[in-house]
Amino acid sequence: MDLSKYVANLILFFRRLRIRAFRAMGGGGGGAEEELTAQETALYDRQIRVWGVDAQKRLSKAHVLVCGVNGTTIEFCKNIVLAGVGSLSLMDDHVVTEDDLNSNFLIPHDESIYGGRSRADVCCQSLKDFNPMVRVDVAKGDPSLIDGEFIDKFDIIVVSCASLKTKLFINDNCRKRNKHIAFYSIECKDSCGEIFVDLQNHSYVQKKPGGDPKQQELAYPSLQEAIDVPWKSLPKKTTKLHFAMRVLERYELSEGREPGETSLSDLPAVLALRKDMCDRMSLNESQIPTALLERLVAAGKKEHPPVCAILGGILGQEVIKSISCKGDPVKNFFYFDAADGKGVMEDIPPTPAD
């Protein structure tokens, strides 16, 4: 059995035992109330001990939208549903294919169940079963066409398997609203992954061992501002994966491709684009190894389940930090490569030293 599926099923088993226990005491509902109910306190007691009652109350009132349901985002969804988020909406009208079965552990290997249904629809009920106290629903539509009125319903928006154009559109709309809406994008390319974070202006409490809690302020750039930063201005130690992902997304955009619609036959054209971008950005091509681009191009839409679990876990942790306003958040990129097993945070553009 796949390890990630085994762990998920084990968590679900014990969660259901606890749900049955507090339901027997007359529990259920109450997630949107000002105070946590006795049933919520009983269900979430372990995590309340970690991040406190106030953080759990904030979490129970948060509304999350996920645009793009794949192996990576479903790991994230599992984590925040188990944690007790207020509501989760899934937007993905793509019909399930056999390729989805390889990484999305919530889609059963039974065509009579998933046949002709959307990814969001198939995964919705399973997520409800993980934690019936969380409202999970399907939001039909095209992420590239969502309007401000719809966006206002949410506190957190996560985008995946979407074009750069769509990500920029949603991120820009989040920033134009009168309320604070945190934006995340996340992608898994087989054994590599990237998370982008835009919390706009974020205040949080930083607490270090032996020290007093301190209020901190962070100002985040938009996605457009972050990817427009001249490469020559970035530190030499900047991960090569950052540059490689920019080349790949530019290639997909220029060719009118959907995310992941690449194969090894595209490699010569991608290498030519690398040369052009490096020349314009005054960056040595060795900073974007051919072998790395070859891996990303060959990956197509494939996701490596263990990497999905890692990225989904990191994103879940970051969203909880954002909602609770506790702990140092990622600013503003996170990269993971299973080839070396390292996770790297990149602050782009770099925050000036105090």
TrEMBL record:
Gene Ontology annotations of biological process type: protein sumoylation
Keyword annotations: Acetylation, Nucleus, Ubl conjugation pathway
Matching InterPro entries: ThiF/MoeB/HesA (IPR045886), ThiF_NAD_FAD-bd (IPR000594), Ubiquitin-activating_enz (IPR035985), UBQ/SUMO-activ_enz_E1-like (IPR000011)
Predominant place of localization: nucleus
Name of one Pfam family that matches: ThiF
GO molecular function, one term: SUMO activating enzyme activity
Subcellular localization: Nucleus
Cellular compartments per GO CC: cytoplasm; SUMO activating enzyme complex
Assembly notes: Heterodimer of SAE1A or SAE1B and SAE2. The complex binds SUMO proteins via SAE2.
Similarity comment: Belongs to the ubiquitin-activating E1 family.
Name this polypeptide is given: Ubiquitin-like 1-activating enzyme E1A
